[in-house]
Amino acid sequence: MRKIEAIIKPFQLDEVKDALNLLGVTGMTISEVKGFGRQRGHKEVYRGAEYQVDFVPKIKIDLIVSREMVDQVVGAIAGKANTHKVGDGKIFVIPLENAVRIRTGESGRDAI
Amino acid sequence: MKAIGFTGFGLLLLGGLVGVAWADDPTPLSNKAAVELVQAHANYVWTLVAAVLVFFMQAGFAMVETGFTRAKNAINIMMKNLMDFSLGSLAFWAVGFGLMFGVSSTGWFGTSGFFLSDYTPDGDPWVLAFWMFQVVFAATAATIVSGAMAERTKFVGYLTYSVVISAFIYPIFGSWAWGGLLNGGGWLENLGFIDFAGSTVVHSVGGWAALAGAIVLGPRIGKYGKDGAIKPIMGHSMTLAALGVFILWMGWFGFNPGSTTVADKSIALIFVTTNLSACTGAVAALFTSWLKFGKPEIGMTLNGALAGLVAITAGCANVSPGSAILIGAVAGVLVVLSVLFFERIRVDDPVGAVSVHGVNGAWGTLAAGLFNAGGTSMALVGVQLLGIAACFIWAFPMAFGMFKLVDKIVGLRVSPEEELEGLDVTEHGGVAYPDFGLSSHGGIMPAGGGAKENRPHPVGATMALKQE
């Protein structure tokens, strides 16, 4: 099992979600986050005071997939979230030790 | 015989009717009294409708202040606005109204009419209508201050201030300029001072008290960096702020024209001058901020509309529409520069109250002299300047001294921990937006957050200024 963490531009979420559903992923969790990579923020002004906004709003998608699906899923996310502009985001693949379904108590692959 | 009878009866009847009608014709004298009564009724209706409009400005102030401040303090702002009106009205009823409009042998303060003692059930109820109109004006002056003192003031300290300004600071100056509207007579108005609806009496008094409060309090944590950088602390709702400005604008149509307290044609000019000044205030602030910062910015533009309204308040009845446009234009530019100025000298005014009300109250009063439709003169301008100065010399030290005293007795500023956590939780045990899960970052990480900001700070202005 692998955990995939993808940080993408909020605007791309719907397309990514649809593509993942087509692949047959069994669920996902999203959170609203802020961050930056090599993309720096931008200047804003409020009542005459200029300030730098470094952290840019992003969406983080967490999903758990079996080892076999990792490449497909990464490809789907990367494909749909790519706008060819700075700030498109990153995908991380992390090995997962275990997963448990709370309702039934199943664990391992049966829990995904 | 019968024909004569009928005709005769008919004639008799007709004659009788005509006789009756003739006896009930209104005499010229009773006509005049009746017409005067209708006019008096109209005066009551207009004055009280205007009072409602001015009352609703309290909602406007509440929305502007909360829009320009953070969500974690929204309850506190609502409480301060609710209570400075409620407590202030009672203080004005008990003491303030008498000081302002009571019989004044000296010309410096009134000595009658406390606790609305001028009202008797069988007497003229005009004093009630007049009181109602005046109390909402007093409340306007009082509520101006809460914006400049937002996000770091102890609630108890603010309540104390509300009573003092409504009972004492506002009415004393008011008696100098407006006492003659009822039973008093002030030295300033006797010199010919023009302040029709209160650019100085209401807005500058509030504005200078706000300045005193902001100075005694010191800036909010995170407002200024160690290198002197000015860090913006973003308001949590530009939509509420804009709503507030629209409500205030609408309320001003009671504030200015209502000050005639008479229902006659003069209110038409006042409506027009009021509106034109507000519009050009907004436009001028828009262009000024656009030029200076590269983008048309909402905070400044909203303040510009308010500045225009404050600036026309003194001269709304004695300047032409064209002059109103100029007055508003200057106000719009002035408020932008003033906000920047006060930020630079480390006076943290979260909503721009000092710049909108204090500075433009002064400009508006001067403008009423400069643009007087009947002609301006050195003497008139001199009196206007005298009034502006007198207001500052009275209101600022009085408020400053009072805030210092409150600080000594109960403490004026909350502790740094309370300020960082938010006054809603610490002062009122509540959260304004429990469903929204708002963080207290306010959009910018360093301002108000961050572990490194959490060193213990001594409370008070001098210490706060020292550590920057």
Model description:
- The complex is a heterodimer of chains A (112) and B (468).
- By secondary structure, chain A is an alpha+beta fold.
- Chain A is 21% helix and 37% strand.
- Chain A is elongated and about 60 Å long.
- Chain B has one domain (41-417): Ammonium transporter AmtB like domains (Ammonium transporter fold, Orthogonal Bundle).
- Chain B contains 16 helices and no strands.
- Chain B has helices at 2-24, 28-67, 74-101, 126-148, 155-178, 187-190, 199-217, 238-255, 266-293, 298-312, 321-344, 353-370, 378-409, 416-421, 423-428, 461-467.
- In chain B, helix 2 packs antiparallel against helix 3 (74-101) and helix 2 packs antiparallel against helix 8 (238-255).
- The N and C termini of chain B lie far apart (116 Å).
Give me the secondary-structure topology.
The complex is a heterodimer of chains A (112) and B (468).
Chain A: E1 2-8, H1 13-23, E2 29-35, E3 42-46, E4 49-53, E5 56-65, H2 70-81, E6 89-95
Antiparallel strand pairs in A: 1-5, 1-6, 2-5, 3-4
Helix pairs in contact in A: 1-2
Chain B: H1 2-24, H2 28-67, H3 74-101, H4 126-148, H5 155-178, H6 187-190, H7 199-217, H8 238-255, H9 266-293, H10 298-312, H11 321-344, H12 353-370, H13 378-409, H14 416-421, H15 423-428, H16 461-467
Helix pairs in contact in B: 2-3, 2-4, 2-8, 3-4, 3-5, 4-5, 4-7, 5-7, 5-13, 7-12, 7-13, 8-10, 9-10, 9-11, 10-11, 10-12, 11-12, 12-13
